Please model this.
Amino acid sequence: MQLLLALIIVGPLVGAVAALLPAPPGLRGKNPDQAVLRHGVTVTGAILLATVVLALGFDRHHASRMQATTDISWIPALDVRIHLGIDGISLPLLVLTALLTFLCALHSYFKMPEGPSPKAFVALILVLESGTLATFAVLDLLLFFLAFEMVLIPMYFLIARWGGSEGVTGGRQAAAWKFILYTLLGSVVMLLGLLLIGLDAGTFDMMALATDNGRGLSTSVQVIAVLAIGVGLAVKTPMWPLHSWLPDAHTAAPTVGSVLLAGVLLKMGTYGFVRIILPIAPDGMRTFAPYLGAFAVVGIVYGSLACLALALPSPDRHPSSTGSARIPPMGTGGDLKRLIAYSSVGHMGFVLLGIATMTPTGVNGALFANIAHGLITGLLFFLVGALKDRYGTADLDTLAGATGAALYGRAPRLGGLVAFAAVASLGLPGLAGFWGEMLTMFGAFNPAEGLSRPAFLTFMAVAGLGTLLTAAYLLVVVRRVCMGATPREAAMPQEDTTPQEEPPRDAPRFADVQPYELAAWTPLVALTVLAGLWPAILLGLTDPAVQKLLAGGKS
Model:
């Protein structure tokens, strides 16, 4: 099993090199572009298959123990090791990464984003997959940092070269630069904290440090380290107010870029909080936990209010008399991808709140919400990409008021999937989005010893308000996109009072869900339902590992 885990991490890098060769080995297509895209599907499919085999061979009865481990000395002078392994915390994230990357490669084979050569596109996707998988499998602080940084360059180029610019001030180049600058600056601060821990403790081995549970680090060292590492992780999460790079990056990124950014890259930050900060520097974490909880709930409410502002029709964005929407200057909002990006700020706020409670219930809720967000938001970005392909825009006012008919009437299956993803995202019981938010609020109801219970009860109440706001904006989106213009929009004054002919009662339909879209979306729908109906499939993995982690590595 240890060789299988190493293959899963290294395999995409080998595939990336092969993608840049004149012709991918053993693969032929109608043209070189088709051949390299098929190569991407093949490599990511093989990695997904290997990950599933790894998951099937994982001993669920000992989910708290590191399995499939590799431990090789790399830099003896600093005790830096090539240390790999998975437990119940990292395995679900590993499977989620392999699944979403394969679905993105499959989607791109049929709907390649506009941009330069597919060779570079496929190579970047594979490098990004390797870096993300490594982040969830390495057990050395410096290797974690290297894997953490490995994904930045591929995502930068995916946004800058294959993205769009609708709704982004300055276009895709500005969004890409904003993404790279924010994350790199955060990473520099994080590296200082990692070095402080490793050099002060005499080892960078995450398992040894977790077992020690901070006993070898003074409180002042822990506080400084948590502050430095936490800032870097918070940028990637993203935590309010370090989130401002996210809406532009999502709006400018191609569909598959948004899916990977929301589905797996954001999870790297919260995973770092759980894997590094909680077990290695518990005293420092206890100092900052109330502040982390406060920032988390502010992010929940802020993200929900921003989404609600984008979801509601604006008087200066009403449909014109010609039946087409007057789209405002770029960067003023109203873009559905931008709305989902802001929703991620709110959803990840629940993850941070669960971590801040420092309780098994809260941390389990955070890990569950992580996976649920990856499934549901990945599906949402796929669906918004499909809407943009059909309508030519993701502008919400255009989708609501200038289509001539509701989405339910023009593409009923697509409309049904949009409604399903929306109610899953708002946390409907029976779907994956429900359990994570509920468990994080349960954790806030009774936080860890030493934390202020009145403060966390307040956080729980504010988070509960956030769930109501989330339901409000998502239901507004479903009403406007799937059912047509709202009465308020219909009553808005027209720019031109010239009499116009009424739109045809039966507006022309466009293509409903295509077979390749069905193949890419069905696994996400199925897993969202499965996790909602059978939460033990995830909690049975994470809970033993979380219990051991919070106990300082003791079973």
Summary: The CA atoms of residues 466 and 527 lie 25 Å apart. The chain has one domain: 2-491+511-550. The mean pLDDT is 84. The beta strands are 67-75, 80-86.
